[in-house]
Amino acid sequence: MISKAILKEFQKIVGKEKVLATEAATMSYSYDGFLDKPVKPDVVVQPQQDEQISKLVFLCQKLEMPMTIRGSGSNLSGGAIPVKNGCVISTSAMNKIKQIDYTDMYAVVQPGVITKTLADNVERNGFFYPPDPSSMSISTLGGNVAENAGGLRGLKYGVTKDYVMGMTFIDSDGNTVKTGGKTVKQASGFNLSGFMVGSEGSFGLITEIILKITPRPAASRAMTVDFDDLNKASQSVADIIAAKVLPATMEILDNYTIRSVEAATSIGLPVDAQAILFIELDGHPAHVDDDFAIVQKICKKNSGNIKIARSESEKNKLWQGRRKALSSLARVKPTLILEDATVPRSKIPDMMKKIQSISKKFNISIGTFGHAGDGNLHPTILTDRRNPEEMKRVEKAIDEIFDAALELDGTLSGEHGVGIAKARYLEKELGKGTILFMKKLKKGLDEKNLLNPGKVGL
With contact defined as beta carbons under 8 Å apart, do 385 and 391 qualify? Predict the structure, then answer.
């Protein structure tokens, strides 16, 4: 609880209506998509201008009050929730697309712009913003940058870091920092844009982002392929990549997920299939046709049953199965834990086998789906957190999933970030020296540890 005098200081900066301090108003800001005991912020503020954020940071420094910057709260690793009460700075009111330049192919946005809003705007003009996290209809671009969000198109088009040309942010002292710009090449000063991407709010509060856009592909074709053996599906993914074909998207669902989606939606998925691949190729029409033929040949060789979308509406219908995966699994049991283990593409078959083995070993339900083309799998554990004995098995299973990913030269997180959820595992992946270096950076740039404390192991 903060005093009325301090509350008035916040209100002077952003206006009375943009300050929330009652328990009812602030409680929802203690949650994101990560299961953890909530910590309620003392105050939530909703600035509309860069200058207001600078003043808020200066005030919080004076009060030694922790700050957590937050977009839509769709984060899955606890990166957008406070761990020490303090102030949540919400970017929801900073949601303007300030400029779209189709000649030089960039967009300038505020951090609160919804990802899909930008994507839809440029698509209407024949352009393309490729990063497409599954939460793109609600996630913000500022949050995407802070977490280095990926998406279904990561295989061919990369992730958020590949589209950030520059940004403006406020540092821990309230100073405005500009980095990068609107030119394709820029070598002036440090690459602070790269430093900020994926930093989870540990070093500054982003107020403006310059993002690259590209011309929309001329053609696309899609198919689903179901298999009677998960290993054959996984092998098909590796074979397609080995054939030098890069689909725009290549997604996988295992049998548990297939059955869960069909039970929830009745869209006609083959419930006896052990796995389904959802594959879409795009680019020049002739190139798409050539690659499409190669993909079909590989899938048939691995005993896949192919269904081709003959129209845009059929393509959208095919993709419903993938889009409904998470929400369908969430219906199965009271608690869903979505993980984010990622391995090199060639090692997907090995990782899928290990996940199945871990599920059997600990007698827990795991539905696996994800971005098979870039190795980013989402083993999704269905459990009930009210069952302490089962939750102990779940925790051991998560440990082994992460160990398996690292043994296969993978990573703890492909796109969800570290946040609170994976902080304790980070040294195992990066090493003690790296963690010490990160802590030195944090200490030097945020001496009092007020910017999103407790995240990324900092």
Answer: yes
CA distance 272 to 452: 46
Choose the final residue of a domain: 90, 118, 141.
90
Asked if residue 278 lies in contact with residue 296, where contact means CB atoms within 8 angstroms, the answer is no
Give the span between the Cα atoms of 430 and 110, in whole angstroms. Answer: 32
CA–CA separation, 427 vs 456, rounded Å? Answer: 10
pLDDT in tens, 87-117: 999 999 999 999 999 999 999 999 999 999 9
**Is 164 in contact with 193 (CB distance < 8 Å)?**
yes
CA gap 277, 306 in Å, rounded: 9
Question: How much is the pTM?
Answer: 0.95
**Using CA atoms, how far apart are residues 264 and 261, in angstroms rounded to an integer?**
5
pLDDT of residue 36: 76
Examine the domain organization and report whether 272 and 324 are in the same domain: yes
* Dist. CA 430–CA 451, nearest whole Å: 22
- Distance, CA of 458 to CA of 448 (rounded, Å): 12
Spell out the alpha helix ranges (H) of 102-175.
115-123, 141-147, 154-157
For residue 319, give the H/E element and its range: helix 312-323
Counting Cα atoms < 13 Å in the Cβ hemisphere of 309 gives: 19
Give the pLDDT mean for 179-206: 95
Evaluate the CA torsion angle 326, 332, 335, 338 in order and state its sign: negative
Residues 251 and 388 in one domain: yes
C-alpha to C-alpha distance for 403 and 229, rounded to whole angstroms: 25
Which of 204, 215, 264, 265 minimizes the C-alpha distance to 57?
204
Q: Rounded distance, CA 302 to CA 231, Å?
A: 9
Give the span between the Cα atoms of 422 and 359, in whole angstroms: 20
Element holding 265 (H helix, E strand): helix 255-265
Q: Where are any strands of DSSP class E within 146-192?
A: 164-170, 176-180
Q: Which amino acid is at 37?
A: K
Tokens of 128: 């393309």
SS3 108: strand
Together in a domain, 336 and 402: yes
Of 50, 114, 36, 48, which Cα lies nearest the Cα of 81?
A: 36
Q: Is residue 296 part of a domain?
A: yes
Same-domain check for residues 370 and 306: yes
Tens digit of pLDDT for each residue in 437-455?
A: 999 999 999 999 999 999 9
Are both 186 and 230 inside the same structural domain?
no
Instruction: Residue 178: name the closest of 189, 191, 167 by CA.
Output: 167
C-alpha span between 93 and 96 (Å, rounded):
8
Indicate the DSSP class of residue 223: E
Longest dimension (CA), the chain: 72
